[in-house]
Amino acid sequence: MDEVLVTGAFGRVGTALIEHLSDRYSFDYLDRVESADHSSITADIAALNDIQPAFNGQDGVVHLAADPSTEASWDSTLRNNIVGTYNCLEAARQAEVESVVFASSNHVVGQYETELAPELYQKGHGVVLDHRTPPRPDSFYGTSKLFGEGLGRQYVENFDYPKRFYVLRIASVRSPEYDHPYGDAERGVAAGEFDRGSAAYRRAVERMKATWHSRRDLAHLVDCCLSDESVTFDVFYGVSDNATRWFDLEHARSVVGYRPEDQADEWNDPP
């Protein structure tokens, strides 16, 4: 696969792909804001006619464009996540794009964490959520991602294109400055939300040590999907090989060859 369109390219996930995969793929970038560093197509994912030309000639699409907040309003979620994902798939169908990699979210199953935390952040919790686990979204955002998963399955099973749809239920990806298991805790300190060493700080570390998905592991997982031709539809969890994670890695390992390099438990202090 050579030509790949990345929607929502200049957010946390998109910049990780640019950083780690731009030497492997000929990326085109679509975002509603311009970048000073990369030429791109500026368009709103909610406007099908505006985004459709960007899909022509593409072998694959990595669909990241969305309102990423669990606090997003229904109106924003409807426009950016639900209509936007429909537009992405419809544009891919019209342009005969082979493969779509969809940035879903751990919030599709987020209610399990709501129910089981904070014990879920400790070793020995015994919880494993995999591709067969019934969804339990925790927000309009989580529900919108579940909609996107279902719509992708509908497209690959009912239309000629796209032929493959990869769902990535991504956990905690952060900006380069905070790309480590202490990232959320240190960001909280920088924002004045709590002090380093406080109970809130320790709780943020415990959660991130379970859910961290390093930027290079994320890019590797996307690469595994873009390189694959065996899947019609499947669901994989996006997380590094953390000792206290509750998201399954074995399915991604066996199906697309995902081999994460990073482990949160190797970190005892922030950088």
What does this structure look like?
The structure is a single chain. The protein has a 7-stranded parallel beta sheet with strand order 3-2-1-4-5-6-7, sandwiched between helices. It has helices spanning 12-21, 48-55, 74-95, 110-116, 140-158, 183-190, 199-211, 215-227, 250-256; strands at 3-7, 26-31, 41-42, 60-63, 99-105, 164-170, 233-238. It is 39% helix and 14% strand. α1 (12-21) crosses α8 and α3 (74-95) packs parallel to α5. β4 (60-63), α3 (74-95) and β5 (99-105) form a beta-alpha-beta unit. The longest helix is centred in the first third of the chain and has 22 residues, at 74-95. By secondary structure, it is an alpha/beta fold. It starts with a strand and ends in a 15-residue tail after the last helix. The model has no long low-confidence stretch (mean pLDDT 97). The protein is globular, with a radius of gyration of 18 Å. The protein has one domain: 3-Layer(aba) Sandwich (Rossmann fold).
